[in-house]
């Protein structure tokens, strides 16, 4: 296993070195964010409250009226009335190829949702024979008076190319920037080489107009085809996208055996996978580190051992004023919530909070609370508020 400066400095065993004073549970006492006594009691500067449970949830997003849309991998879109805790179902969801890491994925609102009612869904889609790939569709959402709703006018606007065998590494996270451009993380489907193939959109970060067409100012737009969609390449399994207050796009992705990454996404840049990585192949074969090939864009932070990142926000709320501008990443294998501090284009793990369960998704609520979805069957929806 290759050494990681971040891991050496920031694992739970050495939070004192990385984060200053720590309590008996190994978590930093952030007295500016919560009373010291409360933090010392729980080991966390927040209180975690269970709000609801879902079956294999994958993503969530808040509606303008405060209700919450939640996707479940098997192919269901749920709507939760947070106040009453009533859960309804939205019909009209596209058929998904459920299995492995595949199924219904991300859910985001159009930037002008209040005017047009349009939502975007990502999901795994079956192809010819034993093939499948990620897809993104947009549809109009109408909620009814019975706690549920329906999608209509559904249209697929993007697909992974090519469809391949296997049910891993779809990625298909979705985000909009302040200009209304649509960004999609397209993972390499555990096929390695497509991440460097410019005639495939696997292992890439994709930038599109909101209708799925290709912006003329994309870095490879003049090459046409799927190449024109590409903003950056050389990615493995990208499961988090978030824009900071300056409009910079940050992405996290799972490494192989080691080397989970947090990257600042730059126009036309190559992040090196599978040629370089700060991890190794699962069979023990070495992958050269990023510092051996400076022509590739190296991560701003990486983890050995891995955290298995999933879900990502950059916080802008008022409930945790000391955390404004910080990132929050859900940890699957690490069963944690990881807080990231940014200094311009630099990033580091600042704290890690043991949640005792795999964390699949992170979202910021309308009131500035932080919301988490656990992974798997009977997964809890948790609301985090200051301790």
Task: Please provide a brief summary of the model.
This protein is mainly β and 387 residues long.
Architecture overview:
The chain has one domain: TolB, C-terminal domain (Neuraminidase, 6 Propeller). Strand 8 (132-143) and strand 9 (149-159) form a beta hairpin. It contains four helices and 24 strands. The chain has 387 residues and is mainly β. 47% of the residues are buried. Strands 2-3-4-5-9-8-7-6 form an eight-stranded mixed sheet, with no helix packed on it. It has a four-stranded antiparallel sheet with strand order 1-24-23-22. Residues 1-35 have low confidence and may be disordered. The chain is 6% helix and 41% strand.
The overall strand count is 24
Largest sheet: 8 strands, mixed
Low-confidence parts:
1-35
Strand order of the largest sheet: 2-3-4-5-9-8-7-6
CATH class: Mainly Beta
Under the CATH scheme, which architecture would be assigned? 6 Propeller
Secondary-structure element string = HHHEEEEEEHEEEEEEEEEEEEEEEEEE
Shape: globular
Structural class: mainly beta
Instruction: Give the radius of gyration.
Output: 20 Å
Helix fraction bin:
under 10%
Question: What is the mean predicted local confidence, pLDDT?
Answer: 91
The structural domain count equals 1
User: What's the CATH topology label?
Assistant: Neuraminidase
The CATH homology group name: TolB, C-terminal domain
Signal peptide: 1-23
InterPro entries: 6-blade_b-propeller_TolB-like, Glc/Sorbosone_DH, Quinoprot_gluc/sorb_DH_b-prop
Protein name: PQQ-dependent sugar dehydrogenase
Domain Glucose/Sorbosone dehydrogenase: 54-382
């Amino acid at each position: 296993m290759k050494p990681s400066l971040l891991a050496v400095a920031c694992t739970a065993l050495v939070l004192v070195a990385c984060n200053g004073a720590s309590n008996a549970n190994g978590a930093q006492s952030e007295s500016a964010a919560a009373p010291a006594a409360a933090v010392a009691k729980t080991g966390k500067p927040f209180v975690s409250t269970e709000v609801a449970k879902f079956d294999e949830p994958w993503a969530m997003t808040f509606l303008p009226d405060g209700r919450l849309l939640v996707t479940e991998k098997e192919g269901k879109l749920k709507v939760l009335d947070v106040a009453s805790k009533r859960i309804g179902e939205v019909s009209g969801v596209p058929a998904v190829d459920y299995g492995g890491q595949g199924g219904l994925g991300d859910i985001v609102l159009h930037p002008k949702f209040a005017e047009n009612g349009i939502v975007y869904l990502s999901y795994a889609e079956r192809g010819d024979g034993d093939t499948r790939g990620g897809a993104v569709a947009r549809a109009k959402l109408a909620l009814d008076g019975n706690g549920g709703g329906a999608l209509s006018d559904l249209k697929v606007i993007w697909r992974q190319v090519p469809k391949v065998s296997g049910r891993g590494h779809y990625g298909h996270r979705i985000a909009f920037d302040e200009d209304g451009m649509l960004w999609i993380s397209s993972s390499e489907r555990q096929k390695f080489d497509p991440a460097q193939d410019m005639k495939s959109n696997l292992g890439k970060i994709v930038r599109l107009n909101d209708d799925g067409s290709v912006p003329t100012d994309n870095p490879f737009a003049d090459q046409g085809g799927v190449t024109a969609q590409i903003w950056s390449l050389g990615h493995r399994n990208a499961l988090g996208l978030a824009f900071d207050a300056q409009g910079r796009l940050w992405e996290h992705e799972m490494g192989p055996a080691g080397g989970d990454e947090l990257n600042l996404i730059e126009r036309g840049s190559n992040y090196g996978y599978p040629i370089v990585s700060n991890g190794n192949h699962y069979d023990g074969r070495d992958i050269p580190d990023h510092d051996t090939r400076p022509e590739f864009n190296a991560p701003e932070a990486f983890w050995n051992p891995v955290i298995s990142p999933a879900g990502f926000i950059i916080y802008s709320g008022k409930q945790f004023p000391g955390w404004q501008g910080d990132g929050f990443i859900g940890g699957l294998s690490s069963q944690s919530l990881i807080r990231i501090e940014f200094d311009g284009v630099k990033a580091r793990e600042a704290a890690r909070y043991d949640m005792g369960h795999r964390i699949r998704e992170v979202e910021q609520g309308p009131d500035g609370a932080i919301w988490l979805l656990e992974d798997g069957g009977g997964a809890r929806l948790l609301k985090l508020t200051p301790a």
